[in-house]
Specification:
An eight-stranded parallel beta barrel has the order 1-2-3-4-5-6-7-8. A two-stranded antiparallel ribbon has the order 9-10. The protein contains six helices and ten strands, in the order E-H-E-H-E-H-E-H-E-E-E-H-E-E-E-H. The protein has a single domain, classed as Aldolase class I (TIM Barrel, Alpha-Beta Barrel), CATH 3.20.20. The relative contact order is 0.18. Helix 5 links the parallel strand 7 and strand 8. Helix 1 packs parallel to helix 6. It is an alpha/beta fold. Helices cover about 25% and strands about 25% of the residues. It binds the ligand O=C(O)c1ccccc1N[C@@H]1O[C@H](COP(=O)(O)O)[C@@H](O)[C@H]1O. The site of the ligand O=C(O)c1ccccc1N[C@@H]1O[C@H](COP(=O)(O)O)[C@@H](O)[C@H]1O has 26 residues, from strand 2 and strand 8.
């Protein structure tokens, strides 16, 4: 299973996640988030990381032009678009991206069906709140294109295994405090996701 550890704010947490086998790391460029990192600081970390690990910039309420610029400035491989956008946005975006569905009801998870997408639980603060999705919504769905997020922890990973998700994304569930990872939880999460 593909694993992304999100909300990275320092090099130590990034290296811990990589040593444990993370496939991707997330850097939050949303100024209202407690996990916000400046593009300049994200770049200092990204430059020290191996090429095979995807560096993903997470955005809320930004224009396609701003996101394109910030991803290049911060040496991100990809943008995670964590808010609703119109069709014109996607063609204006000039970096690879991951679509996010913030699901409030079961029908929502069918948005962008067939495309690789991250499905997170809807929260007014946009994310990182540890809010879980109702797993019964996924029971008759093809989950192989879905990266699941929202309230995941090392302890509840076992419940999602039978669905066959492409990947998982976690932030608050492996933290010691907002923006700082608990390394033992990071290792445990990745080990269980990949088992
Ligand atoms: O982490 C944040 O602060 C954040 C802010 C705004 C939008 C998304 C954010 N995080 C993403 O939310 C999901 C779920 O997080 P959690 O595991 O429930 O804490 C995940 O994709 C985070 O990257």
């Amino acid at each position: 299973m593909w694993v992304k550890i999100c909300g990275i704010t320092n090099l130590e947490d990034a290296l811990c996640a990589i040593e444990a086998g993370a496939d991707a790391l997330g850097f939050v460029f949303y100024p209202k988030s407690p996990r916000y990192i400046s593009p300049e600081n994200a770049r200092k970390i990204a430059e020290k990381l191996p090429l095979h690990v995807k560096k993903m910039g997470l955005f809320v309420d930004a224009t396609a032009e701003e996101i394109t610029f910030t991803c290049k400035e911060a040496k991100m491989d990809m943008a995670q678009i964590h808010f609703e956008v119109d069709d014109a946005f996607w063609s204006a975006l000039k970096v690879p991206y991951l679509r996010v569905v913030r699901a409030q009801k079961s029908e929502d998870i069918e948005s962008f069906k067939g495309l690789i997408r991250l499905v997170d639980a809807y929260v007014p603060s946009f994310g990182g709140a540890g809010q879980r999705l109702d797993l019964s919504w996924f029971e008759h769905q093809d989950c192989e294109n879905i990266i699941l997020a929202g309230g995941l922890t090392p302890e509840n990973l076992e419940q999602i295994k039978p669905f066959g998700f492409y990947g998982v994304d976690v932030s608050s569930g492996v933290e010691r405090e907002k923006g700082i990872k608990e390394h033992e939880k990071v290792r445990e999460f990745i080990q269980r996701a990949k088992a």
